[in-house]
Amino acid sequence: MTAVVELRDVAYAYPDGTAALVHATCTIGAGERVALLGPTGAGKSTLLQLLNGLLRPTTGSVTICGLPVDDATVAEVRRRVGLVFQDPDDQLFLPTLLEDVAFGPLNAGATREDAAARAHAVLDALGLARAHDRAAHHLSGGERRLAALATVLVSEPDLLVLDEPSGDLDARSRRRLRDILQERREAVLVATHDLDLVRGVCHRALVLVGGTLVYDGPLETLLGDRDQLERFGLAA
Question: Which residues are CB-contacts of 170 (< 8 A; sequence separation ≥ 6)?
Answer without folding.
Answer: 142
